């Protein structure tokens, strides 16, 4: 394992990402992590960048024990400065803060072979800088292994201590050969093993789940048909069979045929012990007359909890009679980015963000959380999904919000409005798939607007509703851009929606980016 200590840089997770790509397992922990509390012995340590300056009063500090572990250390940006600071070098603000490309000249030291290993097989190269401070006095025993026009200590190394530092960011794609530098450090210098594969993850995780849950323990979890909850459920099934209870709540605002599809995929195809709760009428009843988006969210969230908990109690009763243990665990499909987001060295909030999907469940049910995917990135989950036998369709499904199409029907959510929105969305997605564009788009859906427009159909005046099509490109869903569809595809979609769906006489395409708009209309 490679340990990454995070000082709060926006790029920290990229370091993790790059190293996992070599097949080397690594963990990211807050920079304040006490080394004596570590549950593993790292093969190497990387100190990340940071928005702080080492001289600031409240600047984050690493546990000095890091430097006594006798394993290779690589400091990146602030990490480099932290190393220099700790070894009595000095750091000063740059004349101008440096942000952007720079050309790194590499200095070789033939008599110090370890020092040369960081840039092994590399010549001078383009790097990405983003810093306000830099070293202005090299600490004793360190050598310069790279410099740029403005930074004479752009890369340094200490042979005996096995400590390396770079002022630039090897983890970003703007440093095109940065991955090779990280590989040299992790594989060449730390000699970490490249044995992190999804197959090994499955075996390890199944064993871990069995150990946590015990021979009689029961686990409950909600599934939505999304890739995360499905993969988590399939892992649970592999680990504890029918002592895992998956629950799908049909809230009446899922997509067309979705409930059936999920039932087939999870229950029949993947063999997961699945209960489908038909609660459409209850949800739609409670949504009557509600037009405020946040109220819709709240009602759907609370009703979900109510239905889920009632079923959990029922399962508890049934299984007690069958001599099984109580339900003690709630399964969540939390991914690593959510965990990282909440790994913070600032203050007491170093807790993991929980229950985005099923807010409130834990408090009420006294259940402990079990999160088999908490070490994985989305693309790793997809790889896992493939190995576990999930259908391609499910693996690449666009994310779908918990409140479903209720937040894509502006205004009141009624049976009729749900039927129109569903039908339009179905045609839209079908045509996107036919055009081979589904995977190019991060998220697409049809929204039903609560306005009526005049039209003409077969010599008759119509007065009907408007469908707005939304499709965005994004990787993190924090910012997004609208997708530039070819006109002929928009034309086909529009024709089909207007001709096939009663109640719609106009289709518009949403060309707003996020920000200032959001991806959902509500
Ligand atoms: P916005 O509309 O905020 O959406 O740009 C960003 C991403 O979050 C999803 N989203 C939700 N997911 N419950 C969810 O589970 C919600 O209430 C919710 N609101 C938005 C949205 O679909 C997009 O992927």
UniProtKB/TrEMBL annotation:
Protein name, entry field: GMP synthase [glutamine-hydrolyzing]
Provide this UniProt record's keywords sorted from A to Z: ATP-binding, Glutamine amidotransferase, GMP biosynthesis, Ligase, Nucleotide-binding, Purine biosynthesis
Query: NCBIfam families, from UniProt?
Result: guaA_Cterm, guaA_Nterm, PRK00074.1
User: Which enzyme class?
Assistant: ligase
What pathway is this protein a component of?
Answer: Purine metabolism; GMP biosynthesis; GMP from XMP (L-Gln route): step 1/1
Superkingdom to which the source organism belongs: Eukaryota
Query: Taxonomically, what lineage is the organism?
Result: Eukaryota, Fungi, Fungi incertae sedis, Mucoromycota, Glomeromycotina
Organism (species): Ambispora gerdemannii
**Protein task:** Catalyzes the conversion of xanthine monophosphate (XMP) to GMP in the presence of glutamine and ATP through an adenyl-XMP intermediate.
One of this protein's Pfam families, by short name?
NAD_synthase
């Amino acid at each position: 394992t490679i340990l990454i200590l995070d000082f709060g840089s926006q790029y920290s997770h990229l370091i993790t990402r790059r190293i996992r790509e070599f097949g080397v397992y690594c963990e990211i922990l807050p920079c304040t992590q006490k080394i004596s509390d570590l549950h593993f012995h790292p093969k190497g340590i990387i100190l990340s960048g940071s928005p702080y300056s080492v001289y600031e009063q409240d600047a984050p500090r690493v546990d000095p024990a890091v430097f006594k572990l006798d394993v290779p250390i690589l400091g990146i940006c602030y990490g480099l400065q932290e190393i220099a600071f700790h070894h009595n070098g000095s750091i000063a603000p740059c004349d101008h803060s440096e942000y952007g490309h720079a050309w790194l000249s590499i200095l070789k030291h033939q008599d110090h072979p370890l020092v040369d290993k960081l840039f092994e097989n590399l010549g001078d190269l383009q790097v990405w800088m983003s810093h306000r401070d830099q070293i202005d006095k090299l600490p004793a025993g360190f050598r310069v292994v790279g410099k740029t026009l403005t930074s004479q200590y752009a890369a340094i190394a200490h042979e005996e201590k096995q400590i390396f530092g770079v002022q630039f960011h090897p983890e970003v794609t703007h440093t095109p050969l940065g991955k090779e530098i990280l590989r040299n450090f992790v594989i060449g210098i730390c000699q970490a093993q490249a044995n992190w594969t999804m197959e090994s993850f499955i075996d390890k995780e199944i064993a871990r789940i069995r150990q946590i849950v015990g021979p009689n323990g029961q686990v409950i979890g909600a599934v939505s048909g999304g890739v995360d909850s499905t993969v988590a459920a399939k892992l649970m099934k592999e680990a504890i069979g029918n002592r895992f209870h998956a629950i799908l709540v049909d809230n009446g605002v899922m997509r067309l045929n979705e409930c059936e599809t999920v039932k087939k995929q999870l229950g029949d195809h993947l063999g997961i012990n699945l209960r489908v709760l038909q609660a459409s009428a209850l949800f739609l009843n409670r949504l009557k007359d509600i037009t405020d988006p946040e109220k819709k969210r709240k009602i759907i969230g609370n009703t979900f909890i109510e239905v889920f908990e009632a079923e959990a109690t029922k399962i508890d009763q049934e299984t007690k009679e069958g001599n099984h243990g109580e339900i003690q665990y709630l399964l969540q499909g939390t991914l690593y980015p959510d965990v990282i987001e909440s790994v913070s060295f600032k203050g007491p909030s170093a807790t993991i963000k929980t229950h985005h999907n099923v807010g409130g469940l834990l408090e009420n049910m006294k259940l402990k959380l079990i999160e088999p995917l908490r070490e994985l990135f989305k693309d790793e989950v997809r790889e896992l999904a493939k190995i576990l036998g999930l259908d391609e369709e499910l693996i690449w499904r666009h994310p779908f919000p918990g409140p479903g199409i209720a937040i894509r029907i502006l205004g009141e959510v009624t049976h009729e409005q749900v039927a129109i929105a569903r039908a339009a969305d179905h045609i839209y997605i079908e045509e996107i798939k036919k055009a081979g564009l589904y995977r190019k788009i991060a998220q697409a859906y049809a929204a039903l607007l609560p306005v009526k427009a005049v039209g003409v159909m077969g010599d008759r005046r119509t007065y009907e509703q408007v469908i707005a099509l939304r499709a965005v490109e994004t990787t993190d869903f924090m910012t997004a851009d609208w997708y530039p569809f070819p006109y002929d595809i928009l034309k086909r979609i529009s024709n089909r929606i207007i001709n096939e769906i009663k109640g719609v006489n106009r289709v518009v395409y949403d060309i707003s980016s996020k920000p200032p708009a959001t991806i959902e209309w509500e």
